[in-house]
Write a structure and sequence with these properties.
three-stranded antiparallel sheet, about 40% helix, globular, Phosphorylase Kinase, domain 1, 10 strands, Aminoglycoside 3'-phosphotransferase, Chain: A, domain 2, kinase activity, AGP_Transferase, alpha+beta, 8 helices
Length: about 300
């Protein structure tokens, strides 16, 4: 499945070639595809490793960012996060950086894996609280650590407006009108005066691994950035109401912050629907589920 322009063809033969050239100690291990997201294609290597390969060369920056910062974050977080085992270099066959991480057991967060959504929401709030209090250690909002979700809402109004318009024939005018009202309500609020913090940037259910019916690990830090905390809370609208309320309570989020976060949830949902409608139906389904939760809350 091709998702982006300029995408690199990634399959098992390519991964075998890379391993043989750069990681011969692992070249004979069993290899099987373990999923594909919007940014990376993943292969499980043996029992304990995961190979991640960016879909395009311009997405290598996110991987390099993880390699640099994840070890520093891991030492200060209670929840398990990915550990880097090897950093691969570009080749003639694959002109992008790639990496091998430790495999983390767990299932994606969902109705069949989470035992109690309120407990799960509290667990997620605990992770976010820890992450947002990790010292920046000189990291600043800039370069790979600057992402739109860590800024203010107003600069995003133009592209969110385009995405809303593109969604109108896809999901219906009444839903789009309701989402536009949520977005405009967020724009009308005063800008956040919060300090910059570390942001995971994409805490959706596919990046939250469940063990023992509770949050066990957080993965995929490709959207790691430094910025305002409001947008971090946007993906909580991917979760049922009990999880959202426990999350909000656990972090003590006030009404204005919550409204900004809900506006960010609209931005992320409509942009995902508009961009991936014809190429990534699974991701569109995630965004549409988020829309449903936004409109019922």
């Amino acid at each position: 499945m091709t998702v982006h322009d300029g995408e690199i063809a990634i399959g098992e033969p390519l991964v075998r070639e890379l391993l043989g050239e750069q990681c011969p100690q692992w070249a004979g291990l069993p290899l099987r595809q373990a999923g594909a997201g919007t940014e990376n294609v993943m292969f499980r290597l043996g029992d304990g490793l995961l190979v991640r390969l960016p879909r395009t060369t311009d997405r290598s920056g996110a991987l390099r960012k993880e390699v640099r910062w994840l070890p520093r974050l891991a030492a200060r977080l209670s929840s398990r996060i990915p550990a880097v085992s090897y950093v691969g270099t570009p080749t003639a066959s694959y002109p992008a950086d790639w990496a091998v991480f430790g495999w983390i057991d767990g299932a994606e967060a969902g109705p069949s894996t989470v035992g109690d959504w309120a407990v799960f929401g509290a667990d997620l709030a605990g992770f976010v609280r820890e992450l947002h209090t990790v010292p920046l250690d000189g990291a600043e909002r800039g370069g790979d650590l600057s992402w739109y979700r860590g800024g203010h809402l107003a600069p995003c109004d133009e592209w969110v407006g385009r995405a809303l318009a593109e969604c109108r024939p896809l999901i219906g005018g009444s839903q789009v009108d309701a989402l536009a009202r949520v977005w405009r309500a967020g724009l009308a609020l005063p800008e956040s005066g919060a300090r910059h913090v570390w942001l995971h940037g994409d805490l959706k259910p596919t990046n939250l691994l469940v063990t023992g019916r509770r949050l066990g690990a957080v993965i995929d830090f490709g959207a790691l950035s430094v910025g305002l905390p409001d947008a971090e809370h946007a993906t909580v609208w991917d979760l049922p109401g009990a999880a959202r309320e426990a999350y909000r309570s656990g972090l003590g989020l006030d009404e204005v912050t919550w409204m900004r976060a809900r506006a960010w949830a609209v931005a992320v949902a409509v942009s995902g629907i508009a961009y991936y409608w014809a190429t990534f139906p699974e991701f569109v389904a995630e965004c549409r589920a988020r829309v449903a939760f936004i409109l019922e809350s």
